[in-house]
Amino acid sequence: MSLASTIELTGRWETKPSEKGNITGVVFKSDSTYEGYINKKPFVSGTYSFNSTDSIITITESSCNGVTGTYKVNFFSDADSMRFTVVQDYCSERREGMQRLVFGRVKK
């Protein structure tokens, strides 16, 4: 059995505080929607599909005029942390933002 087949993306993920003290987070819901927030204030939402076999996520959000982005999700630390590597995304604002974030799973 491969590790990828056991990884669960749904749930709440957050970054460590930035130099300015901001915490960026995302909640991946089981209905294939997500919400992104900074310091608990929502700033983006959209839909996603996740292929756990190859850890590829495809996301669509209104702030990028419906442009879809595809990323490789790189899980580490027993799948409790992740970072995104761009596969293809023509929305430069999202692409640049996603590439510098490292998320940790928020335990309930």
Helices and strands in order:
Elements: E1 11-14, E2 24-28, E3 33-38, E4 41-51, E5 56-61, E6 68-76, E7 81-89, H1 92-99, E8 102-105
Antiparallel strand pairs: 1-2, 1-8, 2-3, 3-4, 4-5, 5-6, 6-7, 7-8
Salient structural properties:
108 residues; mainly beta; Lipocalin
Characterization of this structure:
The chain has 108 residues and is mainly beta. The chain has a single domain (4-105), classed as Lipocalin. Helices cover 7% and strands 50% of the residues. The chain has one helix at 92-99, and strands at 11-14, 24-28, 33-38, 41-51, 56-61, 68-76, 81-89, 102-105. An eight-stranded antiparallel barrel has the order 1-2-3-4-5-6-7-8. A hairpin with a 4-residue loop joins strand 4 (41-51) and strand 5 (56-61). It is globular, with a radius of gyration of 13 Å. The mean pLDDT is 91.
